[in-house]
Design brief:
The chain is about 40% helix and about 25% strand. The chain is of the alpha+beta class.
Length: about 120
């Protein structure tokens, strides 16, 4: 009986150790305002292209508020990437950037007027 208990404890510890070493990367989010975003067609195009990128979990562009929101894998994108990508690919500057860990931090959905206050 003691041998079975010992074997079960060893198996359990190996399983727990294997799980902790193969844990998935943490997802991150970002939100920002796309300055001068002017058409729904452009907003849809941005979403379609961003969703195709490796590491992008979710992409939403709201034409009414000009707000962009994305959830992505931790090591894939950062603030500088979004600034550069939106400027070079789409010709838009971004402002009011906020980012954090998905499920831990709360996004700040300030408007263009309130984010600079």
């Amino acid at each position: 009986m003691k041998a079975i208990t010992t074997l079960l404890l060893i198996s359990l510890s190996l399983y727990v150790n294997a799980q902790s070493e193969s844990s998935p990367t943490q997802e991150r989010f970002c939100t920002f305002i796309i300055q001068d975003l002017d058409t729904k067609t452009t907003a849809v195009k941005i979403d379609q292209e961003m969703r195709q990128m490796t590491g992008m979990v979710m992409s939403r562009t709201d034409i009414n508020t000009k707000r962009y929101y994305a959830i992505f894998n931790e090591s894939t994108f950062d603030y500088n990437w979004f600034v550069t990508h939106f400027q070079t690919k789409y010709g838009y500057a971004i402002t009011c950037y906020d980012g954090g860990t998905q499920g831990v931090d709360r996004p700040n959905f300030s408007t263009y007027q309130t984010c600079n206050e």
